[in-house]
Here is the input.
Amino acid sequence: MGNEHKKHMLKYDIEPFKEITVALNTPFMANEEIDVEGTKKLVRYMKNKGVKSLYVCGSTGEGFLLSIEERKQIVEAAIEAAGDDMKIIVHVGTASTKLSAHLAEHAQSVGADAISAVPSVYYRLGEESVFQHWTKIMEASDLPFIIYNIPQLTGFNLSMPLFQRLIENEKVIGIKCSSEPAHDIMRFKQAGGKEFLVFNGPDEQYLAGRVMGADAGIGGTYGAMPELYIALEKLIRKGEIDKAIEAQKIITDFVYRLCSFESLYGAVKAILKLDGCDIGNPRLPFLPVSTENLELIKLYSDIQTAKESLKNM
Here is the structure.
């Protein structure tokens, strides 16, 4: 990568994005309608936990189960509740380039800090189609853009040649790397350079991702235990890797336990309810998880215990 691209990156201040970024769940009412006030409540809950950055309407936010208007309402509510205290990254990806661009325009109009998108989903598209899709989204706003690579869900794995082509665009400030090999993070960071953001995606390997070069992380299980990820990040920044390994072991166990329920999103929402922030159940086809489930209650208790133990690390 040449110096010219590095200069482009300086157009945007990337430092504020180097945080634990919670992939925000979307609250629903009992009739499966979105809960706008619940969204504001959830954002305030995260703010009180020390969270400084949110990723809205992504996979965890059940973005692909929402209508365009619903996504707009959730984004507006999140931005209103966040105020100036949090960074808001809006996922604008849809199967349609036109609709994605429309959501990008909206995100800018209501004060989002950045946008992000997966490649067009469902259709198996070639690299040129994906390049055009992302480029049109970026052209729709002046906001910085974060690539979202999650091949296990989209069926499209970002190649290094396409990545190199994309980062020539000065709006591309980073990538959320949710592919499973940790060395993907290293390769994207090497190619992107110091002034390029790489977010770790797989929650169970947060520490590995950071060691491989990730600047921060965006994750769906963060919402169930934000304090634990914040504590892990502090240990990494202090260079206390042995302690960070122990913290990651605890977190990874919790991640696997969360994923053992009927749905991850249902489990996270149930944990939030037990913690005093009821945001309802996920929207079908995702299944709810009962707060009376004994395994869930035990998990919640263990998370609370871990919060206390990590405070003393």
Summary: The first strand starts at residue 20 and ends at 23. Residues 1-9 have pLDDT under 50 and may be disordered. The beta strands are 20-23, 53-56, 87-91, 114-117, 145-149, 172-177, 197-200, 216-219. The CA atoms of residues 20 and 51 lie 7 Å apart.
